[in-house]
Specification:
With 377 residues, the protein is α/β, with parallel strands linked by helices. The protein is built from 15 helices and twelve strands.
Length: 377
């Protein structure tokens, strides 16, 4: 029996992971999970899966053997022999703290929190190396890249890595139409069931910028070898092309259960319920990234090539801009304007500690709000 601890058990990734566990109770067991404030969902998880441990910031009347509020105690749980996998499913920069804690466990880390790599890549990877923790990506695109990589080939034999983006709900719309987009419309993703923030990131293509950065750092691939294309059907998730002209692609229906099941495997793949891809006619389309979005991808390439505090800055600006859009303080089109304008005035430097990541994150948030004020007046 392989034990699983889920960071962010009540969220979107947590729900997908629980579904995989539910379908494989003969081989997988939920040892524990963390949650923020969705207490009712937490109670449902406890009732069904009977975990031994639940972590939250405050004690509540949950019917569980061990409620944990202290991070040192949480790390002790991570290190238990019964825990084999830690799923890092807390979204956004907020998830960095728990992901860094997981890096000290010496366990298999199933990583869905791309911000840990984007903002603190070298520091997070070094911590995993120090404590002998292994990283397994469960973002659909990065898991796809992992499955497409040829274990017999070196990175020098890779010609190109292609990530796909659905384009979100507004792909093909003109600027006049985009001016009036509401947060509710932006959060309505056509293919994936995701949280609000990541759905809006998909609509702006910022999510793909962050994923390009993550792929470059995670797989140690040069920025000029990574590209992204629009693929509205979200069936092909990534493709790796080698110098001999061979391209290996990964296809599946858009479901986070697929990459999670792939990474929760032991010696053999585990079974989940899924819809066959070829039971009906399918048209797979691919289009270039819109010209007006290229400047965002140029920033992503700048982050890859120079790293340091750039990733923390880029991510923080976007998180502020998206939140301001959700609060109706700026328009949908102004998200890009805030990102590009704020990034251009930030001071860039190297990173030496996790504390510096938090410092530059806060600095970028302050600058972003100042930029928004200047745009609004």
């Amino acid at each position: 029996m392989r034990g699983v601890f889920i960071l962010g058990g009540t969220g979107s990734i947590g729900s997908s992971a629980l579904s995989v566990i539910r379908q494989n109770t003969d081989s997988l067991k939920l040892i524990g999970f963390s949650y923020n404030n969705n207490r009712e969902k937490a109670k449902e998880i406890i009732s069904e899966f009977k975990p031994k441990y639940v972590f939250s910031n405050q004690l509540t009347d949950l019917d569980v053997p061990n409620q944990i509020t202290d991070e040192d105690d949480l790390l002790e749980v991570f290190c238990l022999e019964s825990v084999e996998f830690i799923i890092c499913g807390v979204s956004g920069f907020e998830g960095l703290k728990s992901t860094m804690l997981a890096s000290k466990s010496g366990k298999k880390i199933l990583l869905a929190n791309k911000e840990s790599i984007v903002t603190a890549g070298s520091i997070f990877l070094e911590s995993c190396k120090k404590y002998d923790s292994q990283i397994f990506p469960i973002d659909s695109e990065h898991n796809a890249v992992l499955q497409c990589l040829d274990s017999k080939s070196s990175n020098s034999e890779i010609s190109k890595v292609t990530l796909t983006a659905s384009g979100g709900p507004f792909y093909g719309m003109g600027m006049d139409q985009l001016k009036e987009i509401t947060p509710e419309q932006a959060a309505n993703h056509p293919n994936w069931k995701m949280g609000t923030k990541i759905s809006i990131d998909s609509a702006t293509l910022m999510n793909k910028c962050l994923e390009v950065i993550e792929a470059a750092i995670l797989f140690n691939i040069e920025s000029d070898k990574i590209n992204a294309v629009i693929h509205p059907q979200s069936i092909l998730h990534a493709m790796v092309t080698y110098v001999d002209g061979s391209s290996i692609a990964h296809l599946s229906n858009p479901s986070m259960e697929v990459p999670i099941a792939n990474m929760l495997r032991g010696d053999n793949r585990i079974s989940i319920n899924f819809e066959e891809l070829l039971t009906s006619e399918r048209l797979l389309e691919f289009f270039p990234i819109p010209h007006e979005k290229e400047s965002l991808f140029e920033i992503a390439r700048d982050v890859i090539e120079h790293q340091g505090n750039r990733g923390a800055i880029f991510n923080a600006i976007n998180e502020v801009a998206v939140q301001q859009f959700r609060d109706s303080k700026i328009s949908f089109l102004e998200i890009d304007k805030v990102i590009k304008g704020t990034y251009s005035v930030m001071s860039m430097s190297k990173l030496d500690s996790i504390e510096e990541v938090y410092f530059y994150d806060q600095e970028a948030r302050i600058k972003s709000l100042e930029m928004i004020k200047s745009i609004s007046h």
